[in-house]
């Protein structure tokens, strides 16, 4: 089956085609020199007569992709949903930990699946193996047109809000301005991901590291408050925070789990790029085992930090808990918190697009999406059409 690749040459545009010869190796038509030297991996491609992307992601990049996508703006902006629905601090911590354990169990199952089926696409590839093409086809369309674009749109709008707010003072940020900033950052991320896989993973690694520094600032601030003896909001964790929330129903617990699991969303993103992981049988499960417990510990400690300086009622009333925390503890350095939220959302959006582009690529490679989405840039080896399609749906 021929697969097409777009070549953006300096002297103009040319189109090359990756074709398969009798022994299963690849060669590009209409290209020579550098194009042939940097083709997709022959061994993986020869196995199933499908186009495969080059393996470039190591262990650190795998951990950064999971952590960077899971930790977005939610834990900084408004981690109140779990507390509001459970009605007590102790039960809310139990929910946060339980959601982390559930996410880890799901991710470990995906690690097993990812080592058995090394194709990119995560659920799409597993549906193909387990249930056939129809469920995989339906999943690819729903994810490509609704789930992934809406997820990235929400993240980008959060970024736009925190970029615009410092310039409007006490006024409500303009919706148009936030959307324009969101579109701008989406286009910047698109350029990064289309230009180079190494650049996209490098950006993800840097922003994840910066995000973890910001989280450590909040956690260290909370530990300092604990040393000062500010523990009165944590001394009776299972007492109701108010008479109105004296007890939580099963429905409240269920919705609390839903809210908590949304904060852990993204634990499966590494499986979308399995074909690009170096030594996936080792690095895929190890990345999961490192990343998800790390995120769980961060979420629990951040919530502890918030409660060292705010009462549960104050936490529920705050629209941006981390900003309130920064204003109360960091003084003149409180601006670090809005900056941290912007960094966090940028990294999360970058990781989301990186994974979503691979889903488009994997599904179109099987003929379940438009054939053009399986095209790969012949020199940069990035699935540019899939990335552009996903960004277009996100902007819309």
Q: What features would you describe in this structure?
A:
Residues 1-35 are annotated as: Disordered. Belongs to the amino acid-polyamine-organocation (APC) superfamily. It comes from Cloeon dipterum. The chain crosses the membrane at residues 57-77, 89-111, 123-143, 180-200, 206-226, 246-264, 284-309, 321-343. With 396 residues, the chain is mainly alpha-helical. It has 2 domains: 1-52, no CATH class; 57-395, Up-down Bundle (Amino acid/polyamine transporter I), CATH 1.20.1740.10. It has 16 helices and 3 strands. It is globular and about 60 Å long. It starts with a strand and ends with a helix.
Topology diagram in text:
Blueprint: E1 3-9, E2 12-20, E3 26-29, H1 34-37, H2 42-48, H3 59-70, H4 74-77, H5 81-86, H6 89-116, H7 123-131, H8 133-164, H9 175-195, H10 197-227, H11 250-263, H12 280-309, H13 312-317, H14 321-329, H15 336-365, H16 384-395
Antiparallel strand pairs: 1-2, 2-3
Keywords:
Amino acid/polyamine transporter I; AminoAcid_Transporter; mainly alpha; disulfide bond; disordered N terminus; 2 domains; AA/rel_permease1; about 5% strand; about 400 residues; 3-stranded antiparallel β-sheet; cell membrane
The name of the CATH architecture of the largest domain is Up-down Bundle
Strand order of the largest sheet: 1-2-3
Major sheet characteristics: 3 strands, antiparallel
Anisotropy-based shape? globular
Number of domains: 2
Strand percentage, roughly?
5-15%
Question: In the CATH hierarchy, what is the class of the largest domain?
Answer: Mainly Alpha
- What is the first-to-last residue Cα distance? 33 Å
Binned, the helix content reads: 55-70%
Average pLDDT confidence is 81
Q: What is the name of the CATH topology of the largest domain? A: Amino acid/polyamine transporter I
Number of strands: 3
- Main structural class: mainly alpha
Low-pLDDT stretches = 1-49
Number of discrete helical segments? 16
Summarize the helix and strand pattern as letters.
EEEHHHHHHHHHHHHHHHH
CATH homology group of the largest domain: Amino acid/polyamine transporter I
Whole-angstrom Rg: 23 Å
Biased composition (Polar residues): 14-29
InterPro entries: AA/rel_permease1, AminoAcid_Transporter
Membrane topology: Multi-pass membrane protein
Pfam families: AA_permease_2
């Amino acid at each position: 089956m021929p697969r097409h690749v777009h070549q953006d040459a300096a002297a103009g545009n040319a189109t090359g085609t990756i074709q398969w010869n009798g022994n299963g190796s690849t060669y590009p038509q209409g290209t020579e020199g550098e194009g042939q030297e940097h083709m997709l991996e022959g061994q993986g491609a020869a196995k199933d007569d499908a186009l495969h992307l080059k393996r470039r992601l190591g262990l650190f990049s795998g951990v950064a992709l999971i952590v960077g996508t899971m930790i977005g703006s939610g834990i900084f902006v408004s981690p109140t949903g779990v507390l509001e629905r459970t009605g007590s601090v102790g039960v809310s911590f139990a929910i946060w930990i339980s959601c982390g354990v559930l996410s880890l169990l799901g991710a470990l199952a995906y690690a097993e699946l990812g080592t058995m089926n090394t194709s990119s696409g995560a659920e799409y590839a597993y549906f193909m193996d387990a249930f056939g093409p129809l469920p995989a086809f339906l999943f690819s369309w729903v994810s490509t047109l609704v789930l992934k674009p809406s997820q990235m749109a929400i993240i980008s709008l959060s970024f736009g809000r925190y970029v615009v707010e410092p310039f409007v003072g006490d006024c409500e940020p303009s919706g148009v301005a936030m959307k324009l900033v969101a579109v701008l950052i989406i286009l910047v991320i698109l350029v990064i991901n289309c230009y180079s896989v190494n650049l996209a993973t490098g950006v993800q690694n840097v922003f994840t590291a910066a995000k973890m520094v910001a989280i450590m600032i909040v956690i260290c601030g909370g530990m300092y408050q604990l040393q000062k003896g500010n523990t009165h909001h944590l001394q009776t964790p299972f007492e109701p925070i108010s008479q109105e929330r004296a007890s939580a129903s099963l429905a409240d617990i269920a919705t609390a789990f839903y809210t908590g699991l949304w904060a852990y969303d993204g634990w499966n993103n590494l499986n979308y790029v399995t074909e690009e992981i170096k030594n996936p049988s080792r690095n895929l499960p190890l990345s999961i085992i490192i990343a998800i417990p790390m995120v769980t510990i961060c979420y629990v400690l951040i919530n502890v930090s918030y409660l060292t300086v705010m009462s549960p009622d104050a936490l529920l009333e705050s629209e941006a808990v981390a900003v309130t925390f920064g204003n109360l503890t960091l003084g003149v350095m409180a601006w670090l918190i809005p900056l941290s939220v912007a960094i966090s959302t940028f990294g999360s959006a970058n990781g989301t697009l990186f994974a979503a582009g691979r889903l488009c690529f994997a599904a179109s490679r099987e003929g379940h999406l438009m054939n053009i989405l399986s095209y790969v840039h012949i020199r940069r080896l990035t699935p540019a059409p899939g990335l552009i399609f996903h960004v277009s749906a996100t902007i819309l």
